Amino acid sequence: MDQELIKEGLKIIEQASYILEEISDQPGITPYEFIAALDSNGITELDHRAALLQAATTIELSLESMSDKTHPTIH
Question: Helix 31-40 to helix 3-23 angle, to the nearest 10 degrees?
């Protein structure tokens, strides 16, 4: 297993989660809101933006599938 690739993937996930938390501490962020946050953070490199958007989408889908009315999930 390529340890550098794993470390880079974890950095992307961590950065995406920080950006999501900047927007809101509740699940339900739209792609448009996330892209606007990328713009406001000066993240312009296309491959990096695509990786962050994919990570954020995965995080949001996970949070929505795990949350319910009795145990709401917060970022």
Answer: 100
* CA dihedral sign, ordered 61, 72, 11, 41: positive
Instruction: Using DSSP, state whether 69 is helix, strand or coil.
Output: coil
The pTM assigned to this predicted structure is 0.81
Answer whether 53's CB lies under 8 Å from 17's CB: no
Of the candidate ranges 46-50, 60-64, 65-69, the one whose mean pLDDT is the lowest: 65-69
Calpha distance 24→59 (Å, rounded): 13
pLDDT score at 27: 79
Give the H/E segment covering residue 65: helix 46-66
d(CA 37, CA 1): 33
Ranges assigned E (strand) in 3-61 = none
